[in-house]
Amino acid sequence: MKAYPDIQLDFKLAPKTEADVYLNDCVQPLEIEQTGPFVRNEQGEIVCVQGKQALISSDEGRSWQSVSLFSVDGFEAHDSHSLCVTESGVLVLGFLNVAKRHFNWHRKANKPTKNTGVSLWSMRSFDGGYSWEEPVWVQGGYAAVTTTLIQLKSGELLMSAQNLDYDAARHYSLTFQSTDEGQSWQASNKLDIGGRGHHGGCFEGTLTELQDGRIWFLIRTNLDWFGMPIPRIKAAPGRSCRRYGSQQFAGYVVPFAKWSAVVGL
Length: 265
Known about the structure:
four-stranded antiparallel sheet, Neuraminidase, globular, mainly beta
């Protein structure tokens, strides 16, 4: 591990600290302002998304070209979004539309108001991120977060998702699968561990495909452990969860050639 004293953490809701940031010896920090996820288009350029713009770099992040994502008003992508490039070169974006987000929680009743909501959408680019199709609605309710969008070995797309059970007043997790490169989406079964509260249930899941074709879906809880569903079929989460020790943070699975690393956020 190597200390990087020049890196300053600025979490508004967390205690301030003067402690150094330590990174693995195999990790090198990038001097860019943009946040991921990052993908490479067929031209080898780096592409990311920020708000209402797609950002494209042809010089390894030293400069960026800004492209409008939306042709109409009323859309803005949340910072937590998912992005992938298919084998055919299509860029697919999954995002929460924060331009029409509302969240309100009754403290005394410990439940959300009925007008609490934010929808999950997807959209595609066929030219490396320089132009985009109109957004496709995926799910309503209070979808909150999508962090991972991958293409399976079989060709289908799989996107991590969550939603809010308004009556039970807790979150549950699920995935959406697409067999037509993001034109349409099919929901999986719901993963519900019980609980109650604005951070009750299971949420902020991240996923990857294992070498045997099963899906590893790592899901945050507020119980100091990740939920790890046991898949019954390769493209859908299972109906039960194993516990996996963690702190109360979201996770992110980074796939490598022969193994996967879990990074706490």
